[in-house]
Design brief:
Helix content is about 35%, strand content about 20%. It is of the alpha/beta class.
Length: about 550
Amino acid sequence: MTKFPTDIEIAQAAKQRPILDVAAELGLTQDNLILYGDNKAKVKLDLLKTKERKARFVLVTGINPTAAGEGKSTVTVGLTQAMKKMGHNVATCIREPSLGPVFGIKGGAAGGGYSQVIPMDDINLHFTGDFHAISSAHNLLSALLDNHIHHGNPTGLDPRRITWPRTMDMNDRALRNITVGKGGFTGGMPREDRFVITPASEIMAIMSLASDIDDLETRLGNIMLGMNGDKKPVYAREMNAQGAMSLLLKDAIMPNIVQTLEGGPAFVHCGPFGNIAHGCNSVIATETALRVADIVVTEAGFGADLGAEKFFNIKCRSADLKPEAAVIVATIRALKLHGGANKNELEAPDVAAVEKGFANLAQHIENVGKYGVPAVVAINRFLTDSDEEIEAVWKGCEALGARVAHCDVWEKGGDGGQELAAAVMDILDEGKADFKPLYDATLPIDQKIETVAKEIYRADGVDFSPVARRAMERLTEAGLGGTPVCIAKTQYSFSDNPSLLGAPRGFRIQIRDVTPSAGAGFVVAMAGDIMTMPGLAKVPAAERMSVSKDGTIQGLF
């Protein structure tokens, strides 16, 4: 069997176009850009004031992820490459990778094979410093909060009711729960604290949803830090934190433009996780792309039960976006796992496992349809897929009346995405999309959670802990009862139990707590045992990485 080069080898061998040439295809000039070398740049925000939206908008989502791989980012990039080959003025909008998964187990978020965004090594590492800026702004607020308490606590913030954590962009399980202020009289008040990974930071959510720098500062001031002794909310603006935080984020808020392996434009900006946050790239990057391209393809994190649900109900609602088509990515290997196949025998043909696992894909197809957005299933092909297995998926989709297309973009780049691109263009040309969110945001918090749980997860119902019930009451009193909900749960299952694969039935969702993201404009419901600070695997990916004497990176995917 032919040995393919690794992702990093493919990226390093690519001939990159000057970013000025890439941007020029979208009508952008050097005056619109702040260059970060020859191959990446930031786009100035004043562009949003001079151009109107003109592009068609496409979402790429997928089935519940498995260890076998789905390739959602790869398909997103490959689809735009295919559309560019067809002569369309197309741009992709994806998220920035987090260092935690890069050095952990999941990997990056720049695509793979011959459907990547480049420079892949820069994008997966420090890139233009956006994540560092977000972490710094978050931790500035944490420092101001503890300093506020140390110097008399004029707001009366109750140290036992602080909900604002600290953050870092690395998987570090030891920081999930900590004690701070143990340095004596000058070391601050001792209290319990915690860390979340940067993609789960509310600052990341705010950056991803802000419309401009003024909106950013307003949202930062609206961050709820906790409650005072009278159980009234205390906000970041009461500590005059929003100005300095905006200063740290003034460059990071500008979207980044890079290129695909085939030289097409790609906006890579912000990176909230779809399981513990809302999982979409920034509104500003999307708005920029919609003004300079004719077709914009974006992605949402993890499966459609998480990323797509939050894309539709949070991002699209917040920015008044109207997606016109969706792509649901599935692989034969992943469907086998959902059908009960042994993870060590995925290369062996197993039509029965594919047919059983198809229930997972079928539920995602039905779910996306509930938002009024027509979809096509992309069978992201692996070399070991048998014709019989592919036919089983094809027949299953046809039985549901769902469009389906082969996709070979990992191996063939844009050439391998022509069938999928044609199917998406058919949907856009038909113009039958009628997007609508799943629920009315003015409903009580518990009803919105129950709507998602029953309609999307197919749960029998939701059980709220006493802590969650009290939190919903206080958040409603604080004015957050009429916001969307962001449910944080495992990405591996429709349920809150990661071992229940396929399309489980007869389960209930357990909500243990509900926390504020007042600046972002939603509340977060914590389901099951989901954590906002991941841990590293027994053998982290970091152990395979190195850099040679000439500066060549090795082992990065």
